[in-house]
Amino acid sequence: MSLTDICRRALLAQIATVAFVSAALAQSAASPPVDPKLTTPALQKYMASPEHWQAVVDSAQRQNAIIPGSCSSLVFSHTGIVRQTKPVTMRPDGTPDEGFWGEAIEGKGCGTTKQFNLYTIAAANQPIKVIAAVPGNTHADILLQRDSLQYVFLAAGVAAKDCKQQVVTEATFGDYEGGPLPNALAGPNARPWRETWTVWACGKLLDVPVHYLPDATGTGISVSNKEIKTRP
Fold it and tell me: What is the pTM of this model?
């Protein structure tokens, strides 16, 4: 098994963990500019701690290392984007006891900027875990990302002649493709949208368009092989 195939499996395993669990160093650890409506003061304090910031950066670095051709000297900073998926309760010592939230950080270096999406899982009597989801400004939550990977890798395998060495380098939000859907499970303001998931496949970069359609049962995913473009 090749190194890139191992990396692809590792990325899938990281994202699958959430479903079943309900080379550069950080140059600064400034307090993230978090929206106070999304967190509590206790959680904000924990997120600003050097220990948590280092855990987040370490996770981003591990993910960056599996992306072929990525910059190895990124400097990380917090974007202020926080997604609290499950309410967080705190222990008396100020560390999370139960909960699940995501943070977006930026890595800059080598003339590039990439967004990394890290999720922290806290469960009673368990060590706190920080795992990486798909990089980029995707609007899909971590479970929808997990489901999207199956479609994206299958389509990329066809476009790259059944290549098994695949890594998602970035998932980029494109635009909305319709108005609000009143009966959507995600809420009455949910709208269909499209993204481009870029896949490194056996030395090729493939842009795979992904279409999302919220409905009463969740969110549908559509990928067409005819829309995939290979970068020069």
Answer: 0.83
